[in-house]
Fold each of these.
Amino acid sequence: MISLSEASMKTLLADLPEDLPEKKFEVLLETPSFRLERILSKGHATPEGQWYDQERNEWVLLLRGEARLEIEGRESETHLLPGDSLLLPAHCRHRVNWTPDDRITVWLALHY
Amino acid sequence: MISLSEASMKTLLADLPEDLPEKKFEVLLETPSFRLERILSKGHATPEGQWYDQERNEWVLLLRGEARLEIEGRESETHLLPGDSLLLPAHCRHRVNWTPDDRITVWLALHY
């Protein structure tokens, strides 16, 4: 977490690991009203039959890589490329169906 | 502004104008505790002798393009490239010294 004493810089596309056995969550900022995270995936998907069903709204932005998400009740998958953002209202059930397994996918997520 | 009734997608690197006479601010999300904006620059810089001095903390992420910022009291400029984030605490005086004038620079800014 970044201290608030002075201006500080962080490169979100650097220090990407070669191997990533588990999806990795890193908190960038946290206040009582929101949490900003960097998430790294490499071939990770939500386990079969599971859905995210969250108490808070989530806004995600894909920074690098690629992802296919499924939103409950929608026929077609949502395909995210770098620069694509998606607002998932609280309790909008969704799952990550696919991320590429040959490179790191970098997400920014704002939970609020 | 995005409605919260259902999941919605927005591409932050699309619909970039060819010409940009003024720096452009677009609110992506706003709550009582934060405001998330997309900012577009093309050759824009803070006018000579002026500084930003803000009541709230600002976290910025450069998504495309390039920028050089000056932070009061620091000798060297801060150079931002895509993926670079910078936390500017409230009242940390800063200015944008330069953005390229041959392409659009896209920023994400979270004021909180």
Note: The first strand of chain B starts at residue 8 and ends at 11.
Amino acid sequence: MSDLAGCPLCEGDGGALVWRGERLRVIHADEPGFPAFHRLIWNAHVAEFSDLTEADREHCMQAVALVEQVLREQLEPDKVNLASLGNVVPHLHWHVVARHTWDSHWPAPLWAAAQRPRDAEREDGLAARLPQLHQALRERLQHWARPFTQ
Amino acid sequence: MSDLAGCPLCEGDGGALVWRGERLRVIHADEPGFPAFHRLIWNAHVAEFSDLTEADREHCMQAVALVEQVLREQLEPDKVNLASLGNVVPHLHWHVVARHTWDSHWPAPLWAAAQRPRDAEREDGLAARLPQLHQALRERLQHWARPFTQ
């Protein structure tokens, strides 16, 4: 793994760690208004998705799809948003965000202007499901990763 | 392919067609301020990335990475942004956008508020390179897709 001095995703987890594998980790992000905001972070410092080898890209997107699938099963979102931007922190990370029609920004991207006030009650309801979600994510990611670590 | 009545990405190309394969197509989007905005659109109507089979997900992301790579080679962007949102049009499509430090929104996401006025001269300079970019995209995507159509 290549660490880059000064890169916040090399020097720290980048959020509340949910699961760490050899090549990538999943964190829960503290993003107001979006209780089910997660990031999948490639452990090594690479800037662009196409900097990865094809094998690593497949590994990465298998994990992205798995996180998305578990979010869908556990939270029944109206949509999942995936994004790899990295303009501010050019260390490969995928935003994986469960979106709901009641959220403050729906149907706009979460980076756009809010469409309505936040719904604290529904946000709290979603947040209450995070422990079970994170347990499910750990189990599924660990099961998925097992063949790579043998 | 399953078409959905009323879905703009089932009923049309969704932009200026650059290349069409059996499973996906690449279009150039007319998005003011971002001359190098492309979308990779899955031809069949599926909403979420994890609705695809693993083989189709790999196929999809091979193409996303290839489009990103050609954009990097041809346009030397400061960053490429990838996103699959679909809140408004829930038909799987990937935004693949070449970002530059001079663009109106840098380093914010392109859906956020602008950070500065648009630079018409540099936008025009980027737009002038699109014919060559699109030719390169067609050649590379066609070469990549050949094994799948034999």
Note: The longest strand of chain B covers residues 93-99.
